[in-house]
């Protein structure tokens, strides 16, 4: 009998939930361990072959990319060399033929898929070099603009004697010595020279960007790559460590892959160019998989051991609470259902008790994000019959606020806590969140708006004590009766916050607030402003601005209207300021971060002072420049402004002034602080910004109007000076106008 009881006890234990869980976990562990071992065993023999096959294929793709590209470049450049403009330049070189050839060069250079950085035509008889940007003498070109240690000017002179029609030379780094105090790196280029065999006077040199070609054509992770030509010269090289094996020693190893010096070498030879491409891979990467098997065994054993321990632990974690829960359910009465002895259940119970509040917050967030789902419909029912309003607290930091024991964000946090406490004391279901870095939104469920207005008046008196740190505007919506109206309420509260005024006190904006008016210059005032701006008449400008602010400061003008007016003044300053007196760069330095500074103004007085400061600085510069006005620079600036749509050459201007182009360039830079090319680009881009905002011209038409024949060059230059593309700039100005309107 005792033996039967013992067997029954053992059977009951074996059927227990704990042992069932442990057995289930162990089965999963054994199955996963077996599968892992099998996968490692099967894959170890294939890994090396796959890596070799992969690297061989990638090197072959790299070779084909280089070969196809070089062949395509040769064909295209031969056609270009024998084109009519180039042949005319060779026969009768003259300034009048330069623009057409330069334009053709730029069309090749700006094609991103050709990787051509520059094309140079060199005439020994006429001693000139023509490239993508200008014409110059050979000494300046190869010793200043494009200097190389491997390819000095003697090298380029020797190529006239070479007996070949085209030839690819090894890649080399080029740099510019335009500035004596520093060397400007241009890049690593592969030169290709095209010429006629019996012509010892004229040839064309094409410079391919070796770095961009490598990034586009090399398709393996390792950077070890070298390209030899048929004579064993290194055409291009990217190596992270040891030197490569010479080409003459390559054939000794046989096959297209071999191991040397702990590196796996892969090589192939192009059929068109005869160049050999070599890629290296550390042997450790191939053999690491074999070593990994020994490590894997140890890891698998350790994982199995810890998995068993974790299985027992998890089984106990699942089993014990259930045992206690069952015990608690059996031992407690109906008044206290299985709570007192189970902490986990107490936590679940507490969360269930807070379900209503969680659902409200969750629904609130979802509605603000415009989320629609089945669950949100459930949460939405909790608010369906309750009236509510939105409160938006807009906090603006004072410019010279001193944060001795904190920061603006810490002060904003205390403001948020204060708002939550004040609202929840009177309206227990109120929800408060921070939606922007300086905006706090509250949703308040109310029956009577008057109770909330009294509370806001009390909060206003508290906020007014912190005016040294910042000003707070409170926008309150109308009362809404259904939670479906949340999007409408959210839109209304943001519209009302835009009606705040530039005053140094806490303001409450609600349906009873006076509708703000729009302020701006009259036509006569606008004409007077632009005329005085051009002449730098500071006294007249200050009088005009003071009268304007005196008229409008006493009226209910919203902050948004003042910001629009200030932005318009800045635009008028940029348009009216004469570029031949004050350079665009100087103007940009004075008006730097103008939008940000305008929006930091708390009162109309601060805004007035800010605008007057800008007017004073610009007027002083204009007057100073007028006193120092120079005849040569004035002529150059006037000519540039009047001929923006045309090609403007330094040589043409120098010829009109009867001086050398080198002297004119140096003189202009000395007088204005900016070289002529930069000045032309700045004037063109500034005119383009005006046309983009004030006209309906297409981007291409704007580019042609200000003198850019290539839309790619226009886009690149526009983004360089404004930080935006033309399309983005036009959209941002239109969007800004709509938002502030």
UniProtKB/TrEMBL annotation:
Domain of life: Bacteria
Record keywords, A-Z: DNA-binding, Membrane, Transcription, Transcription regulation, Transmembrane, Transmembrane helix
MF annotations from Gene Ontology: DNA-binding transcription factor activity; sequence-specific DNA binding
Claim: Transmembrane is one of the keywords in the record: yes
Membrane-crossing residue ranges in chain numbering: 21-40, 294-316
InterPro entries: Homeodomain-like_sf, HTH_AraC, HTH_AraC-typ_CS, Tscrpt_reg_AraC-type_HTH
SMART domains cross-referenced by the UniProt entry: HTH_ARAC
Domain HTH araC/xylS-type residues, every copy: 634-732
Protein name per UniProt: HTH araC/xylS-type domain-containing protein
């Amino acid at each position: 009998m005792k033996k039967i009881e013992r067997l029954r006890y053992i059977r009951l234990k074996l059927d227990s939930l704990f042992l069932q869980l442990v057995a289930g976990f162990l089965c999963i562990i054994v199955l996963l361990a077996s599968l892992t071992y099998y996968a490692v065993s099967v894959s170890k023999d294939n890994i090396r072959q796959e890596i070799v096959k992969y690297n061989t294929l990638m090197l072959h793709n790299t070779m084909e990319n280089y070969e196809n590209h070089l062949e395509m470049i040769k064909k295209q450049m031969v056609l270009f060399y024998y084109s009519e403009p180039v042949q005319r330049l060779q026969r009768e070189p003259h300034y009048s033929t330069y623009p057409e050839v330069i334009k053709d060069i730029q069309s090749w250079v700006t094609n991103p898929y050709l990787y051509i950085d520059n094309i140079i035509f060199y005439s020994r008889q006429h001693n000139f070099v023509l490239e993508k940007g200008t014409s110059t003498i050979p000494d300046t070109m190869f010793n200043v603009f494009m200097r190389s240690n491997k390819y000095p000017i003697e090298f380029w002179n020797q190529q006239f004697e070479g007996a070949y029609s085209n030839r690819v030379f090894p890649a080399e780094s080029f740099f510019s010595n335009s500035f004596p105090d520093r060397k400007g790196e241009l890049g690593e280029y592969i030169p290709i020279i095209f010429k006629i065999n019996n012509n010892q006077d004229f040839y064309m040199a094409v410079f391919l960007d070796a770095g961009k070609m490598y990034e586009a054509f090399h398709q393996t992770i390792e950077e070890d790559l070298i390209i030899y030509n048929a004579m064993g010269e290194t055409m291009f090289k990217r190596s992270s460590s040891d030197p490569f094996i010479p080409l003459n020693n390559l054939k000794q190893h046989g096959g297209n892959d071999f191991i040397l010096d702990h590196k796996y070498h892969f090589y192939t030879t192009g059929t068109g160019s005869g160049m050999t491409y070599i890629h290296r891979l550390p042997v450790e990467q191939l053999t690491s998989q074999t070593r990994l098997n020994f490590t894997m065994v140890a890891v698998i054993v350790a994982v199995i051991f810890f998995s068993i321990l974790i299985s027992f632990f998890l089984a106990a974690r699942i089993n014990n609470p259930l045992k206690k829960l069952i015990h608690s359910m059996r031992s407690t009465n109906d008044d206290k259902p299985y709570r007192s002895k189970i902490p986990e259940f107490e936590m679940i119970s507490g969360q269930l008790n807070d379900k209503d509040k969680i659902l409200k917050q969750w629904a609130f967030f979802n509605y603000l994000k415009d989320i629609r789902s089945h669950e949100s419909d459930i949460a939405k029912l909790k608010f369906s019959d309750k009236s509510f309003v939105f409160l938006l607290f807009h906090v603006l930091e004072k410019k010279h606020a001193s944060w001795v024991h904190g920061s603006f964000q810490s002060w904003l946090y205390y403001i948020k806590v204060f708002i939550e406490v004040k609202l929840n004391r009177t309206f227990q279901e109120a929800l408060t969140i921070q939606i922007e870095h300086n905006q706090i939104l509250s949703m308040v469920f109310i029956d009577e708006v008057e109770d909330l207005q009294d509370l806001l008046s009390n909060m206003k008196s508290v906020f007014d004590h912190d005016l040294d740190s910042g000003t707070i505007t409170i926008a309150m919506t109308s009362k809404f009766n259904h939670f479906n109206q949340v999007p409408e309420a959210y839109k209304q509260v943001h519209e009302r916050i835009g009606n705040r005024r530039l005053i140094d006190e806490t303001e409450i904006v609600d349906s009873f607030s006076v509708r703000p008016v729009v302020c701006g210059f009259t036509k006569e005032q606008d004409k007077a402003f632009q005329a005085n701006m051009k002449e730098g008449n500071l006294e007249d400008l200050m009088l005009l601005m003071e009268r304007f602010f005196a008229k409008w400061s006493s009226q209910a003008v919203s902050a948004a209207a003042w910001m629009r007016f200030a932005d318009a003044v800045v635009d008028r300053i940029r348009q009216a300021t004469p570029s031949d007196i004050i350079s665009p760069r100087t103007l940009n330095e004075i008006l730097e971060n103008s939008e940000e500074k305008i929006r930091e103004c708390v009162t109309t007085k601060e805004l007035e002072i800010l605008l007057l400061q800008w007017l004073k600085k610009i007027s002083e510069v204009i007057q100073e420049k007028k006193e120092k006005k120079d005849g040569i620079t004035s002529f150059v600036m006037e000519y540039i402004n009047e001929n923006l749509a045309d090609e403007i050459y330094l040589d043409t201007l120098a010829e009109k002034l009867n001086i050398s182009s080198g002297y004119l360039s140096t003189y202009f830079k000395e007088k204005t602080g900016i070289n002529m090319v930069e000045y032309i680009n700045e004037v063109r881009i500034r005119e383009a910004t005006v046309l983009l905002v004030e006209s309906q011209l297409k981007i291409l038409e704007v580019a042609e109007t200000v003198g850019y024949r290539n839309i790619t060059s226009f886009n690149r230059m526009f983004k360089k000076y404004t930080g935006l593309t033309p399309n983005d700039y036009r959209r941002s100005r239109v969007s800004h106008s709509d938002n502030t309107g």
